[in-house]
From TrEMBL:
InterPro entries attached to this UniProt entry: Ald_DH/histidinol_DH, Ald_DH_C, Ald_DH_CS_CYS, Ald_DH_N, Aldehyde_DH_dom, ALDH_GabD1-like, GABD/Sad-like
MF term (GO), any: aldehyde dehydrogenase [NAD(P)+] activity
Keywords carried by this UniProt record: NADP, Oxidoreductase
This protein's record includes keyword Transferase: no
Similarity remark: Belongs to the aldehyde dehydrogenase family.
Protein name (database record): Succinate-semialdehyde dehydrogenase / glutarate-semialdehyde dehydrogenase
Domain Aldehyde dehydrogenase: 3-460
PANTHER family: SUCCINATE SEMIALDEHYDE DEHYDROGENASE [NAD(P)+] SAD (PTHR43217)
Pfam families registered for this protein in UniProt: Aldedh
Source organism of the structure: Actinacidiphila rubida
């Protein structure tokens, strides 16, 4: 795939970039390694001040970078602005909380004495250069949610971004340095996927993190495993959105949330709700309202403030989504709305918001992630069936459950196989809460204290008597 900005609303190639050669890669890896040796010794207060300055600079440049993101991958301009604001918020959160999250831990006195020590403690020390392989769908947020904690912990970073968001990648490569971070703390590598393995195998690179497809995760994990280097993987998701009868009194709110949860980022989000599992007592009422609301969404130019859903990021992405829908329809699913390209649009990679009912396990969409504005709805008879359908997926990123029954909440909290269970609301990442999944959604956690410790050397310091 060429490294290029291609406007998904028009299909026009706006700008192309030459990938870094071997000399350019070596220069940046060496710089990251050199910088780590000195940056690791800086104190938390200095790092916090640098992160806060970066947040301030990002706030000032929010409109420009939002337009760049919209141009490159098609998210609506409103959502791009919100993404930039969220990134600044995360930077400030880690600036305020990083030192506390990495404070020395002191074992109980009895355990210290039992070990024969005079004194003992646990300290979190940075690992070194961390390679981040990041996707296009949240081109700023996915990077910052790694970079902010990694830099606050004293690591340095190398970014291999998706090839269709090179201008956003270059912006990130300069942002931290312009805000005051030493040169080499965070750098962008404009390289294709074929060059990633050699960078990861470089002995100066200590660890890796990837957000992306299952295939990309397998590739990174296999190389890192061979090199015995730690990784964090956040892969695909096909999150369930369960609606139980006790939520009948707030069905309109549940429907509105369901629409947002499905079409956020034009439906191209790992944590978007994709499978809507509805109890038979409220199935008809929910599904009818949901389909009407999805059909009413405005599909159009993502630069226009009135647009609800922009284009898919790539032509191949739309083709993949169409294949899933066509397979389901051919096997007996019913389209309650959508299931087609919008009429009158001859350019750009648009697809209408779609709701499919009557989905069965034989259909590909039952197992595969639909990365676009396509929802599947399932009718279930009781709580046991809801849990069974929700867990009948190779993924386990997050989940959403609408119920006011506390016993049901306890059951879902105990039995759903997911990295998060969100009751009466929509899954959303926040810097204070750990984020990640189970099964084929990956392993490890980003954000919160878990995220900042992910790339630290957890060191036991033991002092004899």
């Amino acid at each position: 795939m060429p490294i290029a900005t291609v406007n998904p609303a028009t299909g026009e190639t706006v700008r192309t970039f030459e990938p870094l050669g071997a000399d350019g890669i070596e220069e940046r890896v060496a710089r990251a390694d050199r910088t780590f040796r000195s940056y690791r010794a800086t104190d938390f207060a200095s790092r916090a001040a640098l992160l806060a300055s970066t947040a301030d600079l990002l706030d000032k440049e929010r409109e420009d970078i939002a337009r760049t993101m919209t141009l490159e991958m098609g998210k609506t301009l409103a959502s791009a602005r919100a993404e930039a604001a969220k990134c600044a918020k995360a930077m400030r959160w880690y600036a305020a909380n990083g030192e506390r999250l990495l404070a020395d831990e002191h074992p109980a006195d009895a355990d210290v004495q039992d070990s024969g020590a005079h004194r003992a403690l646990v300290r979190y020390r940075p690992l070194g250069v961390v390679l981040a392989v990041m996707p296009w769908n949240f081109p700023l947020w996915q990077v910052v949610r790694f970079a902010a904690p990694a830099l606050m912990a004293g690591n340095t970073g190398l970014l291999k971004h998706a090839s269709n968001v090179p201008q956003t990648a270059l912006y990130l490569g300069g942002l931290f340095h312009r805000a005051g971070f030493p040169e080499g703390c965070f750098q962008t590598l404009l390289i294709g996927s074929g060059a990633v393995e050699s960078v990861l195998r470089d002995p100066r690179v200590a660890a890796a993190t990837l957000t992306g497809s299952e295939g990309a995760g397998r590739s990174i994990a296999s190389v890192a495993g061979d090199e015995i280097k730690p990784t964090v993987l956040e892969l695909g998701g096909s999150d369930p959105f369960v609606v139980m009868p006790s939520a009948a009194g707030e069905l309109d709110h549940a429907v509105a949330t369901a629409v947002t949860a499905r079409v956020q980022n034009n439906g191209q989000s790992c944590i978007a709700a994709k499978r809507f599992i509805v109890h038979e007592d409220v199935y008809d009422a929910f599904t009818q309202r949901f389909a009407r609301a999805m059909e009413a969404l405005v599909v159009g130019d993502p630069m226009e403030e009135s647009t609800d859903v922009g284009p898919l990021s790539t032509e191949q992405g739309r083709a993949d989504l169409e294949e899933l829908v066509d397979d389901a329809l051919a096997r007996g699913a019913q389209a309650l709305c959508g299931a087609r390209r919008p009429e009158g649009r001859t350019a750009g990679w648009f697809y209408t918001p779609t709701v499919l009912a009557g989905v069965t396990p034989e259909m590909r969409i039952h197992r595969e992630e639909a990365f676009g504005p396509v929802a599947t709805v399932y009718r279930v008879r009781d709580l046991d069936a809801a849990v069974e359908v929700a867990n009948d997926s190779p993924f386990g990123l997050s989940s959403n459950v609408w119920t006011r029954d506390e016993d049901e909440q306890r059951r879902f909290a105990a039995d759903l196989a997911a990295g998060g269970v969100y009751f009466n609301g929509m899954t959303a990442s926040h810097p204070a809460f750990p984020f990640g999944g189970v099964k084929r959604s990956g392993y490890g956690r980003e954000l919160s204290g878990h995220g900042i410790r992910a790339f630290c050397n957890v060191t036991t310091l033991w002092y004899g008597r």
